Sequence to fold (789 residues):
Amino acid sequence: MLTRNCLSLLLWVLFDGGLLTPLHPQLQQTLEARPRENVVTMPGRRSSAQRVKRGWVWNQFFVLEEYMGSEPQYVGKLHSDLDKGAGTVKYTLSGDGAGTVFTIDETTGDIHAIRSLDREEKPFYTLRAQAVDIDTRKPLEPESEFIIKVQDINDNEPKFLDGPYVASVPEMSPVGAYVLQVKATDADDPTYGNSARVVYSILQGQPYFSIDPKTGVIRTALPNMDREVKEQYQVLIQAKDMGGQLGGLAGTTTVNITLTDVNDNPPRFPKSIFHLKVPESSLVGSAIGRIRAVDPDFGKNAEIEYNIVPGDGGNLFDITTDENTQEGVIKLKKVFIYYKSSVEASNVHLDHRFHSVGPFKDTATVKINVLDVDEPPVFSRPMYTMEVYEDTPVGTIIGAVTAQDLDVGSSSVRYFIDRKSDSDSYFTIDGSEGTIATNELLDRESTAQYNFSIIASKVSNPLLTSKVNVIINVLDVNEFPPEISVPYETSVCENAKPGQVIQTVSAADKDLSPAGQRFSFRLSPEASTKPNFTVQDYRNNTAGIETRRSGYSRRQQDLYFLPVVIEDSSYPVQSSTNTMTIHVCRCDSDGTILSCNVEAIFLPVGLSTGALIAILLCIVILLVIVVLYVALRRQKKKDTLMTSKEDIRDNVIHYDDEGGGEEDTQAFDIGALRNPKVIEDNKIRRDIKPDSLCFPRQRPPVEDNTDIRDFINQRLQENDADPTAPPYDSLATYAYEGNGSVAESLSSIDSLTTEADQDYDYLSDWGPRFKVLAEMFGEEENYNTDKVT
Fold:
């Protein structure tokens, strides 16, 4: 250790770069005794020609990790040549861990570590030291940088960061076959001692596997390990540092090794003979039995292929492999009574390394016995197809079906229709003969084909039945005339020219059109005399509508009706007349239709449709405003406002319009008050809610008038019993004043016959409260006097 530190010291001397002299405890005396001189320039202190005595520069210290002593661990000493021991120099420390991890004695320059250090957390610390004048606080020398390294101890065991491991190796592998490489990591310093040198060994898993102690490579140690004997192996691996020496730390991991399968076992039948029994009713192609060979291999190495040994009757049945169960499925190819054959089982995927073991196939014998079964009748055909013309009379025989009983001692057969397939009973069948006849009139246009089932059963055993499908095609009879295939929207331009085709039409027939069916087109006789349009037959089941003249006017006629006669070529010949509607439209010079509406003729030129709609909408709004205004004015005239001015006994009712006095019976008819019987039958609903009235001050009760009281009671009973009365309360005021008034009665009841006989001068004597009324009647009297004059 001393020799290595001396060599390190020599190297740092060669690269001297500072004025401070950090001293290792073991080399302090040696370093101070070996000074050398350097020529430096110190601005402001010495000239460049002066020689400065320098100390050896030691810029690296060591400190032990995990130090557990009771006192701080001594690291080293810093000393300046300018320090004469008089206590005028102060040493300072800065950088990584200064003050928290490392401290320095300001007077002596001794450095101590005040807490335990872990190299794996931080391997070194970089610090800076400086000597300062204790009085002036000025640096005596430039700041020097040095490193304190944490010296490693063996305090970390090896760890398998990727463990536990999973590996596989093929079975039957030779000795030394590669399995897996494991690796352990030691956090200790690999450059210092043997703390990080790891050695591998197997603790569990021998003698099947081995491991290289340096590389950690695991290999097979035994030959011909068989997966069918043992498939899984668990190996325990240990990694130990210090080169495996005593006192080293160790870590372990587990390696799970699986032997993968190889095709080293041929398939074998568990027995040499298989017996199968097959009912004679088995269908060709159906599975009649299964056999199985056993292969202890796994996966694709256990896939088996079954074959019939050549020359052993492979034309009677076939054998295939069920991929899920690896069984041989025997299927019937041909009906037989008894059969014996050999079946071979072999592997699909062979491994040529194991051919020496023997042939990878096995053979077994299969014996098949056919069992007799009472079977249902068999139809002579798998399906029957028949034809019949539509509208054929009921009871007409269309065809027949035939079924036989093939069993020994054959039984007779009965036939009947499965009504689930012919629920409407269009057909019947003779139960003994099997003849099929119509039971209803058939219409090809409603149903062109009938599909139903015939069931045949044995008389001796009705439960044994068989079924066959019967298809009956209904042949067409020409009974419908042809018609235009689709509704056409036909139009003609006002500027059309003679011979111009305006529409191409085609025809369709509800009947089943035979091959070569032709439709002919022509104008009806009544339309042939009109020179407006004509029909041009193209003789390909289409026709063109052509113009006969030039120029059409929408103002004169905007619609034309053209009757077209369409005739077919079947027997009997059918024809129909179809009327086409032709609209006259306004077009541009290229024939593009601009407008076909009749209203467009009268629209002003230059206004768009949107503008016209806006104008119409404005007109409608104005009309609504006028109607609402008139209605409000009329309502205002009907409503009366009753106000009270200097009320003595009655209310004065003012009208907004000028009436004709008592002769104006439209405003208020007071005849009802004179004679209640006059309006007995006049029951008018008051649908307008009356305004609140200003009631006069109540007068002391006076003696009632019998007629008025009876009239009021009668009206009250009528309103209470009237179901058409409005749902709100209304108040009817009658001009009954009673007796005892100072001004006597103002009512026209019992008054003089004419207004001319009235004298209203007495109103002026009633005081200021009747002033307005006196002036009103006084002016009227003066007016009448002037008029008479």
In short: Helices lie at 2-14, 28-32, 609-638, 671-674, 706-721, 771-788. DSSP finds six helices and 44 strands in the chain.
